[in-house]
Write a structure and sequence with these properties.
Number of strands: 0
Structural class: mainly alpha
Order of helices and strands: HHHHHHHH
Number of helices: 8
Shape: globular
Length: 190
């Protein structure tokens, strides 16, 4: 791992992992409207100037990470690459399973089944796994810094989304929050 980040355009760069996000964005265009609406941020959670600023930084960091990934070479032929690949696959599977749960949950119900039993925010969790996968596969300290910044920005977003879900779903969501970890873990029993 070098203190000076590599900036090389190449086929075996981090964009191979990060391409899932532009592809996901394109997929939202072709899925039914009710699914697309439920996978985006509800406009009612961005109510203050601070919310708008945090949303701006979150989106901006995603764009920076995606563009930067074009120039970040993987550490091909090293354990870094294979470890990062495992983290990426975990993130990709989490994203797919979360999306399937969103698509199959009735509009008037909170997401509580499937991978949502182990995380209240599996889509955010999937992004952290993917970003960690890039950080490790490329042995990039700079991408790791981006990952940690994303983690903190997502934590803020999670709080806003949870308050919104409490307003919409009431005690059903409160009960869900009581037994389901915010990031990841086994559900608690009552």
């Amino acid at each position: 791992m070098s203190w000076i980040p590599s900036f090389e355009i190449g086929v075996w760069n981090a964009w191979l992992f990060m391409i899932i996000y532009p592809l996901q964005w394109l997929a939202v265009i072709v899925v039914p409207k009710h699914v697309a609406e439920r996978t985006s941020h509800a406009p009612e959670i961005i109510t203050t100037r601070q919310d708008r600023i945090m949303s701006f930084f979150t989106q901006g960091l995603w764009i920076v990470a995606t563009l930067y990934s074009i120039f970040v070479p993987f550490q091909v032929g090293t354990p870094w690459l294979w470890t990062g690949l495992v983290l990426f696959v975990v993130g990709l599977l989490t994203l797919i399973l979360a999306t399937l749960t969103v698509a199959s949950t009735p509009k008037d119900k909170p997401f509580t089944s499937g991978v949502y039993r182990y995380s209240r925010h599996p889509m955010y969790l999937s992004m952290i796994f993917v970003y960690l996968g890039v950080s490790v596969a490329a042995a990039s300290w700079l991408f790791f810094v981006i990952t940690m910044a994303t983690f903190f920005l997502q934590s803020y977003q999670m709080s806003k989304e949870e308050r919104s879900c409490l307003d919409i779903f009431g005690n059903a969501y409160r009960d869900y929050m009581d037994i389901t970890p915010r990031w990841i873990g086994l559900p608690k029993t009552r």
